[in-house]
Design goal:
Radius of gyration: 18 Å
Structural class: alpha+beta
Order of helices and strands: EHHHHHHHHEEEEHHEEEEH
CATH superfamily: DD-peptidase/beta-lactamase superfamily
Number of domains: 1
Shape: globular
Strand order of the largest sheet: 6-7-8-9
Helix content: 25-40%
Distance between the termini: 31 Å
Number of strands: 9
Strand content: 15-25%
Amino acid sequence: MNDLESNKKAVPTDKTWIIGAGTPMVAVSVMKLVEVGTVRLDDPVSAHLPEFTVIFPGWERITVRDLLGSTSGLPDYFPPLIESASLDELQTRHLTFEERLRIAAGADLPPGPVSYSAWSATDWEVLGWLLESKHNRGLGEVLAKDVFEPAGMGNTHLAAVGQPPEPMLHGYVLEDGNKRDFTRIDAVAGSADSGVISTVEDLSRFVAALTTGRLIREETWKSMIEAEPFSLGGIRPSDDICPGTRHVFVSGGGGPYSVQSVSSLDGHRQVTVVTVLPPRELNVTDAPALVPEMEDAVLQTVRSMC
């Protein structure tokens, strides 16, 4: 259903938050800067964004590669935001990149980078800020030029403050046991980690365009999925879905939304699913059981196409 009030049937062109699944789109824009030599993967972040080490003193060793590969060790700003803000604040308070970083900086962690992969929404907020700085324009404009337009994603945009334009898949959370529409989320409007609104069709178009070389050069794409010890750009490659064929997995989710997309490298075998989860209290400590169940269903569907 599109929403619980009208019981309107959901369709693949309905818009939805793809929280986290938009990070490979941000990665494409970063890698395009790498392609032209404006940025190098092993450059310290502070070389391009001096504000970074003002907020995170002692973190001078963090590189662009660390951010793309989730090895920065930066604390995730999202859990303390969820824990400290009311639902009203999350829905109506807009945050800048700097404000998100300062929330993260309140955590007492030793400076990275680290030797393991640890997802942090903060990595992507730094990259979004870096992109705006390099292009001297908003992240939404950067993504539109680099990703949305060339991939034919006509129903995708970086969210602005306010109620997202319909038709949207409405998500709900529980507040004191009562159902609350949580489709408007100003706290992540403009966010590089969580701010993209898209559709099942458009997300499929993005993954197909990415895997078939229509967004970045083939050697750039290979450098992302073959990077060691961890792939770059929030993309998980897998050789275990169909024998002899590599696939890539893009996923995201938060609050009432969950997204999974799996594609073969040639773009011919693809499954994308968006799930609006049953209402529950908002938290970031555990994923609903339905999320891994849907991921397994997506993988089983792809395997049936082998």
